[in-house]
Every structure is written in C-alpha cells, then in structure tokens.
Amino acid sequence: MATLSQWINRLLLTLCVGYLTITYPLVGHAENDGSGRSVILFIGDGFDDQHVTMGRNYLAGQAGMLSLDTLPERSAVQVETVSAGGQPLYVADSANTATTIASGVITNIGRVGTAPDDTDTLSIAERASAQGLRTGLVSTASVTDATPAAFVAHVEKRGCENPTIILGGERYGQTYSGCPQDATDNGGPGSIAEQIATSNIDVILGGGRQHFETKQSGSTKTVIDLATARGFSIVTSRKALFTTETNKPVLGLFADEHLPVKLRGTDNRTAEPPETSLLHSLHPYLGSVEQPAVMDCEPNPNFAQAPDLATLTEFAINRLSNPAGFFLMVESASIDKQSHKRNPCGSIGEIAQLEEALNVALQYAARHPDTLVIVTADHAQAAQIVPEPSLYNSITVPVYSPGKIARINTPEGGVMRVNYATNNFVSEEHTGAHVPLFANAPAGVELPPFMRQRDLHQLMVDYLNL
Amino acid sequence: MATLSQWINRLLLTLCVGYLTITYPLVGHAENDGSGRSVILFIGDGFDDQHVTMGRNYLAGQAGMLSLDTLPERSAVQVETVSAGGQPLYVADSANTATTIASGVITNIGRVGTAPDDTDTLSIAERASAQGLRTGLVSTASVTDATPAAFVAHVEKRGCENPTIILGGERYGQTYSGCPQDATDNGGPGSIAEQIATSNIDVILGGGRQHFETKQSGSTKTVIDLATARGFSIVTSRKALFTTETNKPVLGLFADEHLPVKLRGTDNRTAEPPETSLLHSLHPYLGSVEQPAVMDCEPNPNFAQAPDLATLTEFAINRLSNPAGFFLMVESASIDKQSHKRNPCGSIGEIAQLEEALNVALQYAARHPDTLVIVTADHAQAAQIVPEPSLYNSITVPVYSPGKIARINTPEGGVMRVNYATNNFVSEEHTGAHVPLFANAPAGVELPPFMRQRDLHQLMVDYLNL
C-alpha cells in the first residue's frame, strides 16, 4: 500500500506533468512570419539505414555527407504492424505504414486508409484540407500505389487501384478477391483512382495513368472523366505541367504505371548469384566460386520520359505555397521497388532523386521558416552492403552469399558489394528494422530521438495545429 | 513586459521543474560533486539498427522502449575502412573500427591500434591515463579480442593475442603469419596479452585467461606473471572480484576465451535452412517448403559461470570513480559473435546485458552529471528481421530465404523471424550500414545528428579535455 508521501508525490507528479504538457507541448508555438505553417514529408520507400549508407557511399563517398545528413534533427522511428488477429507483426508493407503515418492508426498489411475493423481512417491531408490548408501528393510510383493512396483513399486492399480490379478477378496470375464492399456498385467510395479523382487534394503528381483510363463500373466514362468533372486539370507530360491553368487542382499522370528510374546497372544488370565450380557440388569445402563481374551504374535511357522528382516537387511547392500553409507528401517510391528487383543502381538513382527533391524543399524552407521538412522511410528493405572481398577471403574454401550479389564501382574508386538474400522468389522481402528520420528544425519543433510512426503523425498534426 | 499570467506561469514552471529534478534526478540535473569529467563508452559489437530493433521487439515489445531509446541524443555514425592500397572498403571489422573509435585513425581490417603504415596509434585510454585520469576496459569477449585490444595494444593483426601465436603457426586450420615484428623476440611490444599486462589501464575485465596463461617467448613465466609483476591483482571469479585489494589495478579473467552468453535458443537451436520438398527440386515453382519450427529463447545454463556485464560495469565504475574523472569502455561483444553463429536468442541476451550495464552507468551519471554516456556499435551485422509469414504467402509457389531462418516466440505473443544469409560459410559476414549512436546529454555536449567514427573519437577527447 502506498504511503501518504507516495500519494502526495504521485499527485504532484500528475499535476506537474499535466501543467508542463499543456504549457510546453512537444511542438511549441513559433513566431509566425505571416504565412501559415507547412509540412513537407518525404517518404523514401524502403529507405532504411543500409540504403541510406549505400546512397552516401555512392553519391557522396565514404567520407562524404548527403543533404539529409546535414539536417539538424535525427530520430529512429519504430514501425508497428498488427495481424488480422491483433498480434504484433515485425515486418510491414507500404500500405499499413503509410496509413499509420497518414492517420496515426496501426493497421494490417495491405490496408490503405482503413483500420483493422475496415473503418476509414482520417489522413493528415484530409484534415489539413478540411481546415483550409492546401495539400499535395507527389510520387515516382503510380499515384494509386500504397504510399500516396493512404493519404487520400480508403480501401481494404492496396491492389484495388481502379474500377475494374476492385471487383476482383485475376492479378499476377492469382485469383484476387478485390474490395467489393468499397466498390461504387455496392455503395462504396470506389477504387483508389476514383477516390483520388473525387478528392480535395490540390496537386497529385506521379504515374498510374492506366488506372485513370479505366472505365467506371457500368459507365462509359473513365476515371479521368470523373476527375475532370471534379475540376482537375489532367496533365500527362512535362510540357503540359508548366502550361496548366493555375487556378485548378492538378492531376499529373506521367506514366502508365510507375515513373522510370534514374539509374540502372551496366547493360541493365541486377544482382546475380555467385557461380560455383562443379567440384563444389561434391562438398562445400571443395572447388571454387566466381563472384558476379563488377558493374557500373549508368543512366536509364527511359528516365527523361517523365519529369524527375525534383521538378515535380518544385511544381507542387509552387502551387501549394499560400498564406494558410500546406501539407505535401513526396515519395521516392522506387528505392523499394528496385530493391525488390535486386537492382542497387536503381535504388541509388532514386536516392539521388530524393536528395535533389529534398534540396528543393530545403531551399523553400530557407525562405519560409515555418516549414517543417521531414525525411523518413516507411519500412526497411532487403539490401545489405557486404564485404568486398569476403571477410573470410583468406580461408581456402569457397565462401559466397546464398542469395544474389551486385558489385558496383563507386565514383571514388571502391567496389560496393550488395547482397539480396531474403527470398528465392522473383521479389525480395521487406525487413523489420526501425527506420531513420531526418528533419530540419523550424522554430518550436524539438524531435524526440526515438518515436513510433503514430508519433510522427501526431507531431505533424500538432505542428499544423490540426 | 510580462503579464501577471506569464509571471504565474514562470513561477509554476520553476516550482515544477525543481520538484521533478529533486524527485526524479535521473532526468534532471543532480548537484555536481566536484569530480572531473568522465566518459563511459558502450560498444555493442555488431549492434546495428536491425539488432537494436530485434532487442526492442523481444525485450520491450513492438510498442515498447529500451533504456537506450530514452537517451536524449541520437546520431548515425559512418564507418570508414581502407584497404592496404588505400581504397575505401565499405564493410569493416571490429579491429579497424575500434582502432578508429579509440584513436581517430582510419585503418585496415584486422589492425589493432596501428595505422595502415604499421605505426602505433594513440588511444583515448592511453591519453586519459597519461593525463591522470583512471581508465578501464570491460568486455564479454576475451580482453585480448579486437575491441578492447584497440584501446590498449598495438599489433599488426588482431589474432596476435598471446606470446605463442604472435610468432605465427597454425590457426583455424590455416597457416598464420602472426605479427613477428611486434614480438618481444624482435624488440617489439609483444602480443596483445603482454601489452595489456604491462599497460597503465586500471581495470580490465573480461575473458581470455588462456592467453595470459601462455608463457612468454624463451621464458618460464606466463603473461599472468608479467601482469602480477606490474602490480595487477589477477582475479578469475566473481567472489574474488569483490575481495580484491582496492589499491591495485585489477585484471579480471573470468573465462578461457569469451564469457558465456545470457540466452540461447530452445535446445541450443540456432537458425536453420527452410526445408523444401522433393518436387521442388524439379522446378522453383513446384512443391512446398517447410520453415524451421518456432523456438523460444531460454536461459543459457552456463551463464552464471562468469559475472554478468552489469556486475563488471558496476565494479569498474566503483573502482574508477575519482575527482579527476575516468574513461571506461564497456563492450557487449557477443551480439556480434552470436550473429556470426546465426543465433538470434544469443544476440538478444547480449543486448539485454548491454541494457542492464547501461542502466548501471546511467544511475552513476545521474549522481555524477559530468559523465558522458555513449552507446554505439562498431559495424553492422548479418541478421535481418523478415516477414512472418512471407509477404508473398498468398502466392501458390514455395517462397523462402536462401539462407538460414530462426523463428522466435516473443514474450508479447508474436513470432519474430530472423534471416541470416550473407554467407554459405560457418560464419556470417558483417554488413556495411552506418551504425546508431545514443547518448545522454551532460552540460556542454551537443551531438551532431551525423558523424564519422573518427568524429566520435574527437568528441570524447574534447569532452575529457585531453
């Protein structure tokens, strides 16, 4: 039983913590420079600490720094996921994590803007829009892909991207049940594309044109028609982007699916399995192993088919900047997608794109100090930097990764070896490490050195006074 | 001019902060006891962000926090390594990284306290000792292992741990050239054990007794005799530790090699390869796969044979605490060693040990505010948390890691799947991600959010005014 002094202590503690919490909230109130507060949130999909280091080693050199390394705040963000039965799962996907960052709600893998009980979550973009702030979503993926979708749409499954697939059918050669309860046929809000087309988001830029060219169920009209009726300017080329009407919301669709990536491996090579000699098949300690040949990262010739991420980010910021403030999410999506494909040059190019877009945002924040700029990842990914040569190179038995290896010449004259070995399948698995977070430090913001993704959501909501 | 309500606010704030500081000194500023500044540096060997998250998920739960998560400062530390030819290498070992942390010098893999040109580096422990600060090294590895060795010894190769092996011979079934130029026979400073025995370190605790029981070259005397002649109290049991003379330096050797670890997998199981059906050998899309059975983490029955890390840390701090200040390095070594062996329960137990020892240090720092407490890793490691079940579980082909898998029941009712797949050999490879750093925030210390290991060295040197 607690003593009287323990009770008094508890009472004083409660009063003090309550007082301090009210007087000094996590995010304080800075002096306003006349404009409203804004948040620019960068999500590097799969951009974990291995990928950040890969990007630094290649783009800035082992002793160099990325732009994000110069940001004054750094934190680690724990990813939280639950199974349908409510048990903790230790590895996430982009759908459930984007839902948590967008809404603060922990949910199931594959869910977009819905809680485990299928109720709709409320995203920070939706809250900001309702309070008169402008909002934007930019991605190098299809704008219907999980990360941007979770800020604007609400469906049971991330695959329900257009009015056809939402009703189910075949997908990747498998039977797909779709999200019939979300379909307009059944009184639902429709597919992700339809929900984007009827949303209040001011700027939506990325890929995914095919999903908007799909006809609505029982209609001759496409989702593009729906978006146009709603008032969106539809743009599909870099040129059109800069001639679009300035008083209308913009839906930019620059590729059928995801935007082309900036870099690729020599001759489009990705990671390959080390090759062992015939003798090695007799005993693990016999024979020899040959590692895949070294490759360079070279420009992807298709890259110029769409605007780059920095251009899209600059366009979005220019459109969104206004006295009331704005919320903008910018995703470099293919860090993850290229890691699934075991293509480290692909991922590195998308890290370069994130850096270039970040520089645009930081230049804006320098002129508009009430702008919180955050860079984080949604989940960790498969790639690992491994020793070149092996730490066991002097041992006279063949040593090699059981997975697939890429050896990349770096501009500073090193060779960076990257291992992909989470899966035998055509696509690597995500991994479960917490993810990094980098931020500028506008007045009144102090980031805790450790948080959960739902804390990140709350921090942005508090900063925008939503 | 402040309004009345502002004055009241300030008064309430002052009272609250005063109350909380007195009641909860851990989070506030205790009174300075007049002692000089001290540094307690924790190195979790291989303790990268995957391992930190593994530890958090198991020990605190997915939504929980480790003690190190509560520390107010967080940074990422880039690891730098060069080849013998001076080219950047993107993956390190514990010898070259400990040398960089200890001395600020970037060097080659395997080097202990020596630069690439084989000149001796000067460690922070040696500098501190020369300036009248007490110094200590504590490790769960042999005290001659690379990490503690780099703070006190100077040899070409980390394997030169005792007077026999330094002359070369056979090691792990391979011809070993040793470090003849460092041997006393050739006018060198001797093996790592001999250099420890003749050092000015005040407290050295860990394993490695066998290296000290080795006779010196051309002598009937062992390295223990050398250490005794130098004035060390030699202790080899927990009991002896607490009865040793208080006015003598202490060399504690509690195991022949490394100290026993705290946890292990059920029935000593480690990660195992998934098993595929016969049909699967015909085509990758045919047949089925069986993942290894789930295991628990259970106490290692041998753990009590040596003192635990928290006990050693507490002993060291008590011995070192003095008005001039001290430098103490504490290594939880087997996070890495168990990861090499694909034993996640082993690593998790050593993370628990690091946490317990950190709590001892933080309690000391609460009473002695001029104490900088840092937790970092030397390099990243192989373990990856992967999805349970696979993200591709609904695909009707067998999907599985090409490496080895452990599936661990967590106390909160989840199953954490850990993948080891950097190597086909008996030991996994290190990986190349930058490593995390956590620190308390004593007055006068502001940590940059990004640094290199040589910057970490400089930060500690500056803090101690060396």
Structure description:
- By secondary structure, chain A is α/β, with parallel strands linked by helices.
- Helices cover 27% and strands 20% of the residues of chain A.
- Chain A has a domain at 42-150 and 195-262 and 300-382 and 422-463: Alkaline Phosphatase, subunit A (3-Layer(aba) Sandwich).
- In chain A, helix 2 (49-59) crosses helix 12 (344-367) and helix 3 (94-103) packs parallel to helix 13.
- Residues 16-35 of chain A have low confidence and may be disordered.
- Chains A and B meet through helix 1, helix 2, strand 2, strand 4 and strand 17 of A and helix 1, helix 2, strand 2, strand 4 and strand 17 of B.
Question: How are the secondary structure elements laid out?
Answer:
The structure is a homodimer of 466-residue chains.
Chain A: H1 4-23, E1 38-44, H2 49-59, E2 73-78, E3 81-82, E4 88-89, H3 94-103, H4 124-130, E5 134-142, H5 146-149, E6 169-171, E7 174-176, H6 192-197, E8 203-207, H7 209-212, H8 223-230, E9 233-235, H9 238-241, E10 250-253, E11 263-265, E12 275-276, E13 289-290, E14 297-299, H10 309-320, E15 326-332, H11 334-340, H12 344-367, E16 371-377, E17 384-386, E18 404-409, E19 415-420, E20 435-439, E21 450-452, H13 453-463
Helix pairs in contact in A: 2-12, 3-13, 10-12, 11-12
